[in-house]
Amino acid sequence: MADQINEHVLVLEAERDRLRNAVQHLSSSNRQLKQALEEDGPDAEYQEAIGENIVVIAKYHGQIALLEKDIKAAREAQPCADTTTR
What we know:
The chain is mostly helical. The protein has a domain of 50 residues. Helix content is 85%, strand content 0%. It is built from two helices and no strands. α1 runs antiparallel to α2. The C terminus is likely disordered. One of its GO terms (molecular function) is protein-macromolecule adaptor activity. Keywords: Coiled coil.
């Protein structure tokens, strides 16, 4: 049972980490696009991409928050290790 919970936590953590990485890349992309807009002037495609990235980033932040709750709950459900035997 504990092994299943540990595996479940690992899967949740991997998904959380994947989403965090995606947020970092999308944020970096937005910074680059904004810099290009400042240097080159208005560009509808860049502005649209920035807007789409903002929506996805917000969605991912919500998913990350839910995963954090699930990870915490799964960890709390794990049986405590027997610390009486030393």
